[in-house]
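Re: [ENG-882] Designed sequences occasionally contain unexpected residues at chain ends

Forwarding the minimal case from QA. Structure tokens:
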């Protein structure tokens, strides 16, 4: 049986989802809610806290609690890697039409604001072990942020790492001014003769850092999903590692596993 605070959260959640409460609407004061639900103020506070953790409401200091304007949802599925590989060898005119973010959000290219920063760095112990190279080997670190033009926060913060010795054959791959690159990383690797064989992804959830809370526009209590993507080529080399921080209140992870028939 649901606790009193859970019933309060469920009722307000239903009203938000049904459109009875719209983004920007202010919730009644805690004392008024306590009277409405016939519970104590701490119980109301607990129920509203659940909604804040889910990202449905936000408390504004000195003003009250408001229904939060929901950021654009992102549905990220594992079939995207096959989709990206299928596009990697298409003509540039086809690759320019859409990218992975558009695939995940349903937005169009012109809806997006894209930022990329490149830096050449020595591999630390973690990245060196993941790539199977000596510590200190040079990598290209690429930091990506993409957001909907009508929103302040990016969909995620992605740091992608490539081995310099594998990509230096194409100088354009070292230039951030070539971004956004039509066809993404798989096409970039294709230009230096690298074909991906498989992608391994691992996930964990954790509280955000203060910097992540601010940059991703997170409400108090919302966790982040930390994804490490490891790309392995057809010769069994690790050719890319990406660490992606995804906001937990707007990211849906969908994974499909095809099973062999008996």
């Amino acid at each position: 049986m649901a606790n009193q605070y859970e019933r309060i959260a469920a009722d307000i959640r239903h009203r938000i989802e049904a459109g009875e409460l719209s983004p920007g609407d202010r919730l009644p004061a805690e004392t008024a809610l306590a009277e409405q639900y016939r519970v104590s103020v701490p119980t109301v506070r607990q129920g509203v806290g659940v909604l804040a953790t889910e990202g449905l409401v936000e408390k504004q200091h000195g003003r009250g609690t408001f229904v939060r304007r929901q950021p654009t949802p992102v549905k990220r599925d594992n079939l995207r890697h096959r989709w990206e590989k299928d596009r990697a060898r298409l003509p540039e005119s086809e690759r320019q039409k859409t990218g992975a973010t558009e695939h995940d959000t349903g937005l169009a290219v012109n809806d997006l604001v894209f930022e990329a920063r490149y830096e050449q760095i020595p591999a630390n112990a973690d990245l060196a072990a993941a790539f199977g190279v000596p510590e200190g080997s040079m990598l290209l670190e690429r930091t990506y942020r993409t957001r909907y033009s009508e929103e302040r926060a990016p969909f995620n913060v992605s740091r992608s790492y490539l081995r310099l010795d594998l990509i230096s054959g194409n100088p354009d791959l070292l230039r951030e001014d070539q971004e956004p690159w039509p066809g993404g990383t798989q096409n970039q690797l294709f230009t230096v003769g690298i074909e991906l064989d498989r992608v391994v992804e691992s996930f964990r959830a954790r509280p955000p850092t203060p910097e992540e809370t601010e940059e991703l526009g997170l409400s108090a209590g919302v966790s982040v999903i930390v994804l490490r993507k490891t790309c392995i080529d057809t010769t069994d080399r690790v050719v890319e590692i990406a660490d992606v921080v995804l906001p937990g209140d707007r990211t849906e992870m969908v994974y499909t596993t095809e099973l062999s028939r008996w």
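QA comment: On inspection the terminal residues look reasonable. The two ends are 42 Å apart (CA to CA). Proposing we downgrade this to a documentation issue.
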